[in-house]
Design a protein that fits this description.
Two copies of one chain form a homodimer. Chain A is α/β, with parallel strands linked by helices and about 350 residues long. Helices cover about 45% and strands about 15% of the residues of chain A. Chain A binds a DNA duplex (30 and 30 nucleotides) through helix 1, helix 2 and helix 4.
DNA sequence: CCTCCCGCTGGGAGCGCTCCCAGATTTCTG
DNA sequence: CAGAAATCTGGGAGCGCTCCCAGCGGGAGG
């Protein structure tokens, strides 16, 4: 129970030296079995735990990894995607024996004030960075830093390790699915093109349509910012142009879009088909259940932690890249479930 | 840029000793101004940052505070309330110069495996614990621990510092508001009574009704678990008993309840009035906008951080308690905005 | 019988910092 | 102008740990 026990104390109690206790704790070989068990008994009895700080001072490792979510993500942070990602990363770092420190920057000012303290203070073994923007100033600074770094989501510069999902391929899948179902006026509620995910999903979607000889009409594209509200607003802008199917580049925006559709008295999927992207629980619970492209959020987070640890231990050398596949999840909102799989051509 | 500069290095570069550099960095008085500026110049030029780990080893403080969100909060974590709370705590600890470590326990097993490492390893100066349940096993263990501890939300045992909001008073306010508007069959979608917030809101509501001579009919109470889905289910159970007003003990459950009402073809507030609790952004964006009881989530988080730091520095001695007031926010869903402020009596 | 080796153990050094004390220098006092 | 006080500076000690090396005893080999 006493908090301030040291190796030396345990040694004295067990009648051995500091060094021997250290060997026992670190499971090293050259310890006499009887001595080992005697020491273990004392450790057990006293409830001794090694002081991590002192250990870190010697080893140069702290076991702490930082998760940075930069500024301007207020709205993004409301996206359940982030909750899931944080959960995934947290679980993985618990498993790996890491401690997770969270850095939520509210604004650029805080970002630049805290960044040096965070990175150069020596407390962090490495950093996971999410929600980077194109030309992110944080990224530029970090890339030159000495600290191991893994990005979640494709960064727009080279030479950095990252883990991403196949946004491009997933959006192509979505486009193909809607075309195959016979829709003619297919629109998109896109994500901000200031993010690589937004760009990739938009390009993938456009390419998926083009591949089937159906260009995206400019009127049938409205941009959102990942928030539910923005999905709602974007869909309102789209409705006057009479789309018969809409792909929203995130489930959260799709839910917003659904509101707009219902408000306008349009039935989903009978009047307008709708698709999302992410595969969040919300997509399943919505009414009608959302057809979506599921990305493995938890796996992404877990891989980021693993990648970072490889970088820290030197088991890997930068840059490492991994892109997870995504999966089409067909539910009600796309109309594929309707008796007639060929919807009316207006 | 070089990561591995030490005090000694800076001293050599500036032609002074380790000690003097330390004094300059820590802003101590007895340093010759010219020497001081010379040292500062070297620090500036080299980009030196003190090694926090070494400093911690001496001072016994790390500046790291832990935020623990225990198991069984999967559904709770989807509640935007937690996102806001985490943001508030994060912002406050950034301001206070703390580093925030996040411990999300997925299950009891992880909880008991990680707890000793977390608390006794000496990395944490203190702990903030949220979402505690009645008779929380974690709490019992922590209360006896040596580490400073602050709970967000009233714990069900004495002798622990905590910060809470006036759940009881807020629920009374809600009850009073609905009674004053003339509703006769007032129901509640309550939060789990395994949480103190759930208990306090339920008791406050019952007391608020009783105070006006209107007992809560058992049929008009349905329990949820803070999730949207549970709010939906609870309201479906309530509808057959024809309430004319319902208080949901959280905004998230209120949103779920709204779905159920709309699905049943009931208009809010014309057919059934609805109230929430929390004052989350979602309550404002819902349609109709939700009348709710707003609690100062960010302030709560900030106060918890401050309280914890007081405990750590010894500026305060346990237990400290603070309860924030809440505020009635009248919007559309309660019917107060209707032309006739006296709704029909069925 | 001596040497060599091997298993095991103890203690020194040092991680980078803060604290404290003593010495060097300057300034103030009577 | 001597003596005391105030100001400034450097270095030792030590925070709790890991790493390394030396030393101890005992068994094997020549």
């Amino acid at each position: 129970m006493a908090e301030n026990l040291t190796l030396e104390d345990i040694g004295r109690l067990a009648g051995v030296s500091r060094s021997t206790v250290s060997r026992v704790i670190n499971g090293q070989a050259n310890v006499n079995p009887s001595v080992r068990s005697r020491v273990q008994e004392v450790i057990q009895r006293t409830g001794y735990t090694p002081n991590v700080v002192a250990r870190s001072l010697v080893s140069g490792r702290t076991g702490v990894i930082g998760l940075v979510i930069p500024s301007r993500v207020h709205s993004l942070f409301e996206d359940p995607y982030f909750s899931r990602l944080i959960q995934g990363i947290s679980a993985a770092s618990n498993r790996a024996g890491n401690t997770l420190s969270l850095f939520l920057f509210q604004n650029e000012e805080e970002e630049s004030a805290l960044y040096p303290r965070v990175v150069t203070s020596g407390v962090l073994d490495g950093l996971i960075l999410t929600a980077t923007r194109m030309a992110d100033p944080l990224l530029a600074r970090m890339a030159v830093g000495e600290i191991p770094l893994v990005i979640v989501g494709r960064p727009d510069v080279d030479g950095i390790s990252y883990v991403d999902v196949d946004n491009h391929g997933g959006a192509m899948l979505a486009a193909g699915h809607l075309v195959d179902l016979g829709y003619q006026r297919i629109g998109i509620v896109s994500a901000p093109t200031s993010t690589t995910a937004g760009v990739d999903r938009l390009n993938g979607f456009v390419e998926g349509l083009a591949l089937r000889g159906m260009p995206l009409h400019p009127d049938l594209r409205a941009d959102g910012d990942f928030s539910e509200e923005s999905g709602y607003q974007a869909m309102r802008r789209l409705i006057p142009h009479r789309p018969d199917a809409v792909f929203a580049a995130s489930d959260t925006m799709a839910v917003g879009a659904l509101w707009a559709l219902q408000e306008a008295g349009l039935r989903v999927p009978h009047d307008v088909a709708l698709m999302g992207f992410d595969g969040l629980p919300a997509s399943e619970k919505s009414n009608p259940a959302l057809t979506t492209v599921r990305q493995p959020v938890t796996d992404t987070g877990a891989r980021a932690v693993q990648m970072l640890n490889d970088l820290v231990t030197g088991a890997a050398t930068s840059p490492v890249v991994e892109v997870f596949p995504v999966e089409l999840v067909v539910r009600e909102s796309c109309g594929a479930m309707l008796a007639s799989s060929r919807p009316r051509t207006d």
